[in-house]
Amino acid sequence: MRVMYQPYEYFLGFRYTRARHKDHFISFISLASMVGIMIGVMALIVVLSVMNGFHKEIRERILGMVSHATITSTEGGLQNWAEAMELAKQHPDVVAAAPYVESQVMLVNGQLVSGAMIRGIDPQQESAVANVGEHMNSGSLDDLKAKSYNIVLGVELARNLGVAVGEKVTVITPHAMITPVGTMPRLKRFTVSGIFEVGMGDFDTGVALAHMRDVAKLNRLGDAVTGVRLKVKDLYDAQRISYELANQMKDYYYVRDWSSYRRNFFEALATEKRMMGFILFLIVLVAAFSVIIAMIMVVTEKQSDIAILRTLGASSGSIMKIFLVQGTTIGTFGVLLGVISGILLAVNVETIVSALESALGFQAINPDLYYISRLPSDVHWQDVTLIASFAFVITILFALFPAWRASKVQPAEALRYE
Fold first, then answer.
1. Do the beta carbons of residue 145 and residue 211 sit within 8 Å?
2. CA–CA separation, 22 vs 363, rounded Å?
3. Quick one: how far is CA 360 from the chain centroid?
4. Which helix (H) or strand (E) holds 137?
């Protein structure tokens, strides 16, 4: 029967990690290093997951209004929009399409005036490309019928104008008309049939919805529309799909994806996430630096052991491997515990925060300020993998110097005062 022996480098490396009766302080430093790495990894996973959750909430609310992609004309109004819709639907990754009419207007109620963007939609087709119908505080998008001149306002816009459902507002367009008394702006009285709240100030304050035929008539577009809104299977693939559609369509079609609407905003969110990750990664660096201190103390304490091993024929590489095993053990357990606790905390952060709010009687997020009442979390496995890999590699790199120093211990010098 063959007996499998563990290489002595691994045996001694694991033994130096554990505490003995006279090595409690060194073992405590090793444990503190492990806990520090665990806390750093856990904090990184939780914070980045919460930031991912916030970004997802913001992105979904923006895409609920701006859609995944749009097709417009390079020559102004889109006349052959039905053809554009059919061409777009032929792409295998396009889920739905809907026409829209859009223009800047002034909304007036008595002495109250507010600028807004009025968007004309087809309620039956709009629900397939946007989710604004799911955010109605009152009324319904189905009340927007052709020639009804009904209008749906954002909640802040309705508040600024002092109107409620059933009341009327005057819509003034920048298009002028010639009358016997001179040039006058085009205006029309609309009835407020609904109020929506998507939770984004730009939209709740500056967007109004009406039937696209009513808005087209108000802007003298005839049968034309401003463009066609698209919904794709994977919103993160919208840029590629838009590029392919632009190549397939005629030159007078212009296709844009959602990222181009608010590119600076989304780039700012990505930069914020990277900087926050970098700042929190300093926690891991501090914990990894403590590995150097713990291992240098071990090397100093074990110089006589190292000298005896060298005298018995152990090579410098074997001595170095012993202490690398110790550093690897600290890093492995620290990263593993950090990943497990980080994922568990990130997945249950909403429940934990709610329990703390109930127990301590405070509100972590003010919905009047942030438009959300919960702490969202979205764990990205690529983030977890990247965090764990970096933390482990940093720990190993920080363990190299003490291990190299141990390999350079001279037996005669180490045993001189023994």
1. yes
2. 49
3. 29
4. strand 136-139
Name the nearest CA neighbour of 228 among 129, 367, 327.
129
Residue 157 clears pLDDT 50, i.e. is over it:
yes
* Rounded-to-10 torsion of CA 314, 316, 321, 323: 100
| 72-81, 149-158, 386-395: range with lowest mean pLDDT | 72-81
Q: What 3 state SS string does 198-229 have?
A: CCCHHHHHHEEEEEHHHHHHHCCCCCCECEEE
Q: Which helix (H) or strand (E) holds 99?
A: strand 94-109
Decide if 293 contacts 330 (C-beta within 8 A): no
- pTM beyond 0.90, yes or no: no
Return the DSSP state at 68.
S
3 state DSSP class of 356? helix
Buried b (16+ CB within 10 A) or exposed e, 97-130: bbbbbbbebbbbbeeeebebebbbbbbebbbebb
Q: Give 167-199 as a 3 state SS string.
A: CEEEEEEEEEEEECCEEEEEEEEEEEEEEECCC
CB 262 within 8 A of CB 365: no
13-44 per-position pLDDT tens digit: 656 666 554 556 666 777 777 888 888 889 88
pLDDT (tens digit, 9 = 90+) per residue, 336-355?
999 999 999 988 888 887 77
Tokens describing residue 347: 């997945």
Query: What's the CA gap between 315 and 304, in Å, rounded?
Result: 15
Q: Which one is predicted more confidently, 406 or 275? A: 275
